[in-house]
């Protein structure tokens, strides 16, 4: 590989790795890892390791990164707030790269003394047999054709090794990846609280009075969650409404322009960047607006946001009331 290309791909790899650590947004950090994978793939291809270089693009920069971003979206990871540096974190951040550099220096110092690659005996490879005495590479296969032409078929040999000697571990790895993804989907969904049964259990003693009981009519829809307790937030909308606001009978108080004291709605559990953008488009910018929602407002935004019952399940109103109280304190 020419020196300019080597330094270019090396710079891409190092810059991508630094951005993974320094970027505060999880999605930006994950996309920075793609840049690092591309630089690493270029270095492998420059070393004539074409198969490993292509794997870096197809498997890591493609499939694995899609999986990472998919999981980040499911978990609704919010932007990390900037914290003060701690001594242990700084020490670990310095010690780990130093250990890596020491290992790298040790490897590079032994490059000249490394043994040379042995010469391949293609005739012997063609006659190689398995435990049953049959030829390992049968005539007509791509591996046999390449070895007959005295060319090493790296990709086909790796595939043959994986799907013969290591087929079971390969399937186990695939199952583990699937289980991890299913577990992430499960964790991202909060289970609805159990509904308290108001009716008395069957086979109980008859009541003292002999008055006939009227049959209880079944509910039109099963109650998934208990009634939401409205938090107590002082309302002053009628006395002193904020500037650039209007009141809608379905959506409550809404802003016609973004206020200067707009809150970070992503702090509320269950609201991510996408939902915050949608709420802003509907004129919702503050915790107090959400805390003051009526049942009609909740029903309206359930329909607008296209998920029935999530506002109640995630207790948006209670969280918004607590955040508004902390903001006013």
Low-confidence stretches: 191-204, 232-238
Give the integer mean of the pLDDT values. 76
Assign the structural class, choosing from mainly alpha, mainly beta, alpha/beta, alpha+beta, or little secondary structure. Answer: mainly alpha
Helical content band: 40-55%
The separation of the N and C termini measures 63 Å
- Strand-residue fraction? under 5%
Element order: H for helix, E for strand: HHHHHHHHEEHHHHH
| Total E-strand runs | 2
What is the topology?
Elements: H1 3-22, H2 26-46, H3 50-75, H4 87-109, H5 122-126, H6 142-148, H7 154-164, H8 167-188, E1 245-248, E2 252-255, H9 273-281, H10 287-291, H11 295-304, H12 310-313, H13 316-328
Antiparallel strand pairs: 1-2
How would you portray this structure in words?
With 329 residues, the chain is mainly alpha-helical. Among the domains are: 1-77, Four Helix Bundle (Hemerythrin (Met), subunit A) (Up-down Bundle), CATH 1.20.120.1200; 124-187, no CATH class; 245-328, no CATH class. Helices cover 53% and strands 2% of the residues. It contains 13 helices and two strands, in the order ααααααααββααααα. The protein has helices at 3-22, 26-46, 50-75, 87-109, 122-126, 142-148, 154-164, 167-188, 273-281, 287-291, 295-304, 310-313, 316-328, and strands at residues 245-248, 252-255. It has a two-stranded antiparallel sheet. The longest helix has 26 residues, at 50-75. Mean pLDDT is 76; it is low at 191-204 and 232-238.
